[in-house]
Amino acid sequence: MTNPPRKKRPSKARDNLVYALVWLACFAPLVWLAWRGVMGELGANPIEKLVRELGVWGLRLLLVGLAITPAARIFKQPRLVRFRRTVGLFAFAYILLHLVSYVGVDLFFDWNQLWKDILKRPFITLGMLGFLLLIPLAVTSTNGWVIRMGRAAWSRLHRLVYLIVPLGVVHYYLLVKADHRPPIIYGAVFGALMAWRVWEGRRTQRAPT
Amino acid sequence: MLIRHAPDLTDNDVTDHGLYLKRRTLMAGLAGVGLAGAAAGQAQAGLSFTKGFSTPEKPTSKEDITTYNNFYEFGVDKGDPAEKSGRFKPRPWTVRIDGACEAPRTVGIEDLIGANKLEERIYRMRCVEGWSMVIPWVGFPLKDLLASVKPTSKAKFVAFETVMRPSEMPGQAWNTLDWPYREGLRIDEAMHPLTLMAVGLYGDVLPNQNGAPLRLVVPWKYGFKGIKSIVRISLVEKLPATSWNKLAPREYGFYSNVNPAVDHPRWSQATERRIGEFRRRETLPFNGYGEWVADLYRGMDLKRFY
């Protein structure tokens, strides 16, 4: 009696290489931004540029994180799912830096102005809300927390990202003066990723067990 | 009205006046043999001017003024106007001045420059987005140009229009705004001695990205009122439609005077970042020109007429 032919597992070395590449790709925008900042290449208004770029990269990485599960299914690469945590934590880091640079560099710790902004400016209110909702997701990102909470509760909590991403898109949309194409594109990508989830959910429910 | 000259700028001439005059003569000579159109496209000839009303503040660097622009006809990014305006041809150029006046006319840009006494005026410029610059313009008062067409009593407002050239202005392919760009002033604002028609910047001919060859500068209003690459100026009886006001009437009023007490619906106007500086600074009513222009709006509720 022979064993059925087993699919060859990717080697440990290749695993580590892919992991390093993902990590570098997530870090690259920050390095590039810091480099341009040091070289004085962020233009005439470097503070605004820095704050905006950090925010946009945070949003992009959130979308990449949301794209991992569909990509893993569609391309039959289940091991991709391992990278959700890395990408998600990098997204959190960019958004944290986005907030810190806005409060610390743009407003220069003018807490009074910040409070007024949060109350009076819908785009700041929504952005701040999105950030607050991200904190529990970042905190509970470890394996320990998955075990402590139980898989089902943990998954439910992390579905908050389906609310956080549109908050980010609307936050972006509201600060644009006339050219709404970029936030609309990010909104459309989010819509497509959510549509896939709905479609996939129905498909797997119908499938014979 | 008395316009005071900032004293610490009067003896600040760094470029020999005779040199400017010589360059002007060369330009005029070329025009005489019909070469101006071909030559002026490349020419970065200096302009002949005297020092006029100016702020004593340090001008923003030429690099920042010419690379950080809102000129949506060339694209919506601040860097687009500098990068994508190379194909734009600001010469030859004519401006039509018509409407409620006795002597409507069409005038070429070189004739306009030749007929008017040019002055350098260093003005603060406050963008509605919350940043500001100090810009050394070269130009002449709009009132001189308007006087030349003899406005009638029906001229209550002035309407301006930017050129429509999608082949040279890639941003006009997108309907971000309803092209061509339009702006307007009340007649007393237009006739105010601070209101400038700029043809130059930092002593040279106006670069494409800053609104070549002819743009409006109204230093007490938000920057978008300063319409660029003007082809038509009409004296009209009714308040004219303006581009940003049409796009978002709640956000951009016809007057759009710089006012820290009236916020943009989506962001505060209380402070601004001066390009080149780190900390934000307080925004001044009428961008600091209230002493000369506040009277124009006496009795008006500026929260209503924003």
Features:
heterodimer; A: 209 residues; mainly alpha; 78% helix; globular; B: 306 residues; alpha+beta; eight-stranded mixed β-sheet; 22% strand
Structure explained in plain terms:
- The complex is a heterodimer of chains A (209) and B (306).
- Chain A is mainly alpha-helical and 209 residues long.
- Helices cover 78% and strands 0% of the residues of chain A.
- Chain A has one domain.
- Chain A contains 9 helices and no strands.
- The longest helix of chain A has 29 residues, at 46-74.
- The model of chain A has no long low-confidence stretch (mean pLDDT 91).
- Chain B is globular and about 45 Å long.
- The model of chain B is unreliable at 9-44 (pLDDT under 50).
- By secondary structure, chain B is α+β, with helices and mostly antiparallel strands.
- In chain B, a hairpin with a 5-residue loop joins β2 and β3 (105-108).
- In chain B, strands 1, 4, 5, 8, 9, 10, 12 and 13 form an 8-stranded mixed β-sheet that branches. In chain B, strands 3-2-11-6-7 form a 5-stranded mixed β-sheet.
- Chain B starts with 16 loop residues before the first helix and ends in a 13-residue tail after the last helix.
- Chain B has helices spanning 17-32, 36-40, 62-67, 80-84, 109-115, 142-147, 187-190, 243-247, 290-293, and strands spanning 50-51, 94-99, 105-108, 119-126, 131-141, 157-162, 182-186, 196-201, 204-205, 215-217, 230-236, 271-274, 281-282.
- The interface between A and B is medium-sized, with 20 and 27 residues.
